[in-house]
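Hi U.,

Before I forget, here's the chain from the pilot set. I'm dumping it here mostly so it's searchable later in email.
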Amino acid sequence: MIEGDIIALIGSVGFPIVITLFLLKERSKETKELIKVISDLTILIKTKLK
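Structure:
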């Protein structure tokens, strides 16, 4: 149940954030790091649930 909530959160919040940051052309190192962290977290969650 909690895992499902995490997936829903990543799906509804995480991806739009990544897309928005990407569209801002990754202007800073911090933004690039944030995108990487979100991507890694999403991959990790998907891997754990398979």
